[in-house]
Design goal:
The protein is mainly β and 607 residues long. It contains three helices and 40 strands. The longest helix has 18 residues, at 297-314. Mean pLDDT is 93; it is low at 603-607. InterPro entries: Carb-bd-like_fold, Gal_mutarotase_sf_dom, Galactose-bd-like_sf, GH-type_carb-bd, Polysacch_Lyase_4, RG-lyase_II, RG-lyase_III, Rhamnogal_lyase.
């Protein structure tokens, strides 16, 4: 019977243990310092030091600048999921554009998953460029495992490409000669004399993406296999014919995601100033197997190939708790980015609702190439399928199962509203009798009445709105439009306060999900506890031209903002988030909020 997965968080280490595999990960860096399995206390190379055994790295440069190399290390640890069946942990580094000096303009989140009964673990990274990032070029990024050099001597990448490898000491000038290609070494006096006269070069073990999928090493005494398995190639750059490194003398085992090998700078990812981007690299599976018999060592390779097929059959890896996307809106559009169907005007769009089981059929589509978009009431964000849909005359296409995983970094501390892309769930006041339209007096669309923006001042003549979590009701106490407050015949900025209590503060980054149903000419600012520069966590100026406020609407262009809040800004006990509509002198500027949610960085939400 499979044992429960245990998570132990220490000052400098995070331990994951399912009885078969035990991981030791440096905290908060996210470097794998130890892998215990099959009777070996650590499969990784002890001579490399804790920070050089299992790590992520990146090669990058500023436009026109010198190439830079750095190891990726997290600064904030968090627990994404912890149960008897599965543990997922996060090691995140958040880019701050205001920090001086030359820094990698990238936020990254390194994740590890260990499941009950699994003879291995999953690794993946979330790379993201938030607004305000400087331009840079990404040449290469990968994860590296350096295995015990005294034990792992035999590598395998295909049925034909397997061999005993040189020792790392063989790369020294005393034992080999460097050839014209810097990475190529002619073995002149190798530790293993059988290899004398051979050439070793890490590029000799490259594989096309389409032909790769599993590669690794087999140790001697005990006989253990260490395998990197890619269940899919979609997150690797260059497509099916891109060649990538796999293993090389060290003994090193690589998980390559982006690289310029065999193509050059043409394949580097060039990011412009301010360009946003998000990509999930992986997950890949580190599979471990063993046998007590030397004569059956080859079976470890055969078993690893079977595990690869299993991982491929399980792709995409998804949550165990899927629910049907009922009443979702699903459509085909020429728009190619998430949510951009809202502003696509040149081509046709075909939309349908899903049924109670999340199923849908789109009929009578004009032939063309489309992207599949969607959104689900009750969930934030937009769905965009990564594969384009090509429609030809008379064709019928089965899309299979589609999985939407809305953004979430941790458990909910509190939430306000219901995410349906409208402000319908908030308080809409009665019309001023001077401006009544009788058609809407007893209508569900009372927001169609004229002049409702001025009713905010009638409700709050002296001070702005305060909303206390657990006490106030959004349908009664949250005005549907965040507008300026009128004083006499002038309009002044308004600041809304959300009050909440934390029984404890979890160390790390809290996340505020702020979804707007419509914005018009607004300068929106967000503060934590105090309205000053040191407590400001978000600002955007002159946002939106939706005109939903003055045109009697309840929604316009949907937007979602994901705002990082350091735990250092929060206190145990009473806290506030301040939303400021900072534009003044404009009766018709304003924000219609759809939904707000605060997420804690770890399992203990602090509420």
């Amino acid at each position: 019977m499979a044992k429960n997965v245990k998570l132990v968080v220490q000052n400098s280490y995070v331990l994951l243990d399912n009885g078969l595999v035990k991981l030791t990960i440096l905290k908060p860096q996210g470097i794998v310092a130890g892998i215990k399995y099959g009777g070996l206390e650590n499969l990784l190379d002890l001579k490399s030091g804790e920070t050089g055994r299992g790590y992520w790295d990146i090669n990058w440069s500023l436009p026109g600048g010198h190439p830079r190399y750095q190891q990726l290390t997290g600064t904030v640890f968090g627990t994404i999921h912890s149960s008897n069946d599965k543990v997922e942990v996060s090691f995140k580094s958040i880019y701050n554009a205001s920090t001086s000096g030359i820094r990698l303009p990238l936020t990254f989140d390194l994740r590890y998953i260990l499941k009950s009964g699994d003879s291995g673990f999953y690794c993946y990274g979330i790379y993201e460029r938030p607004p305000g990032c400087r331009a840079f070029d990404l040449a290469q990024t990968r994860m590296v495992f350096k295995l015990q050099r005294e034990r792992f001597h035999y590598m395998a990448i295909t049925d034909e490409k397997q061999r005993i490898m040189p020792m790392p000491e063989d790369m020294d000038d005393k034992r080999s000669k460097q050839l014209i290609v810097p990475e190529s070494r002619l073995l002149t006096n190798p530790i293993n004399p059988d290899l004398k006269g051979e050439v070793d070069d890490k590029y000799q073990y490259s594989m096309d993406n389409k032909d790769a999928g599993v590669h690794g090493w087999i140790s001697s005494g005990p006989i253990i296999g260490f395998w990197v398995i890619f269940p899919s190639q979609e997150f690797r750059n260059g497509g099916p014919t891109k060649q990538n490194l796999t293993v090389h003398t060290g003994p090193n085992c690589l998980a390559m995601f982006h690289g310029t090998h065999y193509i050059g700078d043409d394949i580097s990812a060039h990011f412009e100033e301010g360009e946003t981007w998000r990509k999930v690299l992986g997950p890949f599976f580190v599979y471990l197997n063993s046998t007590p018999s030397v004569s059956k060592a080859y079976n470890l390779w055969s078993d690893a190939k079977k595990q690869r097929l299993f991982e491929e059959s399980e792709w995409p890896y998804v949550s165990d708790s899927l629910i049907p996307a009922q009443k979702a809106c699903v459509g085909l559009s020429a728009a190619r980015t998430e949510g951009s169907w809202q502003t696509e005007s040149k081509d046709y769009q075909f939309w349908v609702p899903t049924d109670s089981n999340g199923k849908f059929t789109i009929k009578n589509v004009i032939p063309g190439i489309y992207a599949l978009h969607g959104w689900v009431p009750g969930f934030i964000g937009d769905y965009l399928d990564q594969k384009l849909v090509t429609i030809t005359a008379g064709s019928e296409i089965q899309l299979g199962n589609l999985i939407y995983a809305p953004d979430r970094d941790g458990p909910t501390v509190w939430e306000i509203g219901y995410p349906d892309r409208t402000a319908l769930g908030y308080y809409v006041p009665d019309v001023n009798p001077t401006y009544v339209n009788k058609l809407f007096l007893h209508s569900t669309e009372k927001y169609r009445q004229y002049g409702l923006w001025d009713r905010y001042t009638d409700m709050h003549p002296e001070s702005d709105q305060t909303f206390t979590i657990g006490i106030n009701d959004p349908k009664k106490d949250w005005f549907f439009a965040h507008v300026d407050r009128r004083v006499g015949d002038k309009y002044y900025p308004s600041t809304w306060r959300i009050k909440f209590n934390l029984k404890s503060v979890a160390s790390g980054i809290y996340k505020l999900r702020l979804a707007t149903a419509s914005v018009n000419r607004s300068d929106l600012e967000v503060y934590v506890n105090h309205r000053d520069n040191n407590h400001q966590v978000f600002e955007v100026q002159m946002l939106g031209m939706d005109n939903a406020v003055c045109r009697h609407g309840i929604h316009g262009l949907y937007r979602l903002f994901n705002i990082d809040i350091s735990s250092e800004l929060l206190t145990m006990g009473d806290n506030s988030i301040l939303l400021t509509q900072a534009r003044e002198g404009d009766a018709l500027c304003g924000v219609l909020y759809d939904y707000l949610r605060l997420e804690a960085p770890v399992n203990n939400s602090g509420i």
